[in-house]
């Protein structure tokens, strides 16, 4: 890394595919998200794009067409993250590194660009786990996991009326909730395998509602904010 890049505080942002493409591509959100990040010139952002609804549509179609191999289903999902990542990289233009990260890098990129964009990488590895690996590589201490939920809960609030929202929790307690198993297209507040690695590395993960960009501004400024803090 160049010396100027070393001085920049780095945040890993796991950008849920549900924010990029909820039903159609959310142009307004992407425009506002770009403007917010570019306000913080003193910070570097590594964006890991999820597949979201696009991923699930394609994986569901594959299952309906007889695909049962988990590796094949993972590849279908990974390709959807690549499409989303290319779109996100393109909108940042010259402020972004010129290529998306398509596989796990061996070392941090030698670039002074403020924005670096990654897709998913390989079967059996979610974008949450990719985000943790990138945090380790770029010496980032915080992962901001932006999705369509405002908090993590101790159980699925769609199924249980007594589900309690979590504002702060240790990795040990959080992992009791999510378990240890990964499944293609699984819907976790933060992936079980990624959680295991984040705990080992001593990372902080903030789960927050991605559409609330005023809240994201507070997170970046280190002010009081809504969301679940793990670690």
Question: What do these coordinates show?
Answer:
With 231 residues, this protein is α/β, with parallel strands linked by helices. The chain contains nine helices and nine strands. It has a seven-stranded mixed β-sheet with strand order 3-2-1-4-8-9-7, with helices on both faces. Mean pLDDT is 89; it is low at 1-5.
Key traits:
two-stranded antiparallel ribbon, 231 residues, alpha/beta
Largest sheet: 7 strands, mixed
Number of strands: 9
Number of helices: 9
Assembly of the depicted chains: single chain
In terms of per-residue confidence, which ranges show pLDDT below 50 for 5 or more consecutive residues? 1-5
Arrangement of strands in the largest sheet: 3-2-1-4-8-9-7
């Amino acid at each position: 890394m160049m010396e100027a890049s070393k001085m920049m505080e780095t945040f890993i942002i796991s950008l849920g595919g549900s924010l990029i493409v909820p039903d159609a591509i959310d142009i307004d959100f992407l425009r506002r998200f770009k403007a917010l990040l570019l306000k913080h010139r003193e910070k570097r952002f590594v964006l890991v794009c999820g597949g979201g609804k696009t991923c699930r549509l394609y994986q569901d179609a594959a299952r309906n067409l007889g695909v049962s191999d988990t590796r094949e289903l993972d590849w279908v999902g990974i390709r959807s993250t690549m499409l989303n990542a290319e779109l996100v990289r393109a909108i940042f233009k010259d402020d972004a590194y010129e290529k998306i990260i398509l596989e796990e890098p061996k070392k941090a990129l030698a670039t002074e660009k403020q924005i670096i964009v990654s897709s998913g990488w390989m079967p059996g590895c979610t974008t949450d786990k990719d985000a943790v690996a990138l945090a380790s590589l770029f010496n980032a201490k915080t992962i901001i996991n932006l999705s369509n939920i405002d908090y993590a809960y101790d159980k699925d609030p769609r199924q249980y009326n007594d589900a309690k929202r979590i504002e702060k929790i240790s990795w040990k307690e959080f992992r009791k909730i999510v378990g240890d198993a990964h499944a293609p297209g699984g819907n976790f507040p933060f992936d079980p395998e990624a959680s295991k690695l984040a705990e080992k590395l001593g990372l902080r993960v903030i789960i927050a509602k991605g559409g609330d960009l005023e809240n994201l501004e507070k997170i970046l400024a280190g002010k009081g904010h809504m969301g679940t803090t793990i670690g």
